[in-house]
């Protein structure tokens, strides 16, 4: 018998469970349904810059040197870490908590020709920028000329 969980409006557990379902369905990531495991998911954007792609993640207040890793694993760019609440003890009794803390993991597919040596990362003013060089190299279409007349055959 399955259990039905009832959530109140704006209950953060609802969004954590929904995020887990979406990740497992569309991104091929394992479904984690605990609110603590998915409490913080940094927003991300990808931007084309010439032949490169730049992935930007909003990580304000995160110590990237200690709490964030950027890796290339199985053809995927994986940014994982944790946003820690340094004031957890002093704010344990607060009743409104809009800032999210916890572990996070974001994963982005890479083309087969891109390796770890093409990846570099930079953190400035709360934004982690990960540049993946050469993602779009050689992806421009090649125009094929159409000729009229007798078709070309392999017979000699």
Automatic annotation (TrEMBL):
<comment type="similarity">
    <text>Belongs to the small heat shock protein (HSP20) family.</text>
</comment>
<dbReference type="InterPro" id="IPR031107">
    <property type="entry name" value="Small_HSP"/>
</dbReference>
<dbReference type="Pfam" id="PF00011">
    <property type="entry name" value="HSP20"/>
</dbReference>
<dbReference type="InterPro" id="IPR002068">
    <property type="entry name" value="A-crystallin/Hsp20_dom"/>
</dbReference>
<dbReference type="InterPro" id="IPR008978">
    <property type="entry name" value="HSP20-like_chaperone"/>
</dbReference>
<feature type="domain" description="SHSP">
    <location>
        <begin position="34"/>
        <end position="149"/>
    </location>
</feature>
<protein>
    <submittedName>
        <fullName>Hsp20/alpha crystallin family protein</fullName>
    </submittedName>
</protein>
